Amino acid sequence: MFTDKYIIENAVNSAGHTTLVIAVKAADLVATLMSEGPFTVFATVNDAFAALGSS
Fold it and tell me: What predicted TM-score, i.e. pTM, was given to this entire model?
């Protein structure tokens, strides 16, 4: 992760956060996360999302 990039830019460039990126896009939060924060995002990795199962 790079401190000079927005949260979503870091997530898009991370192979382990593709599910998070899909969720952020689905929630229409890309523009928000490309603006000045501060924001705190618990950036769950793909494996953690997968462990939730499909309910």
Answer: 0.80
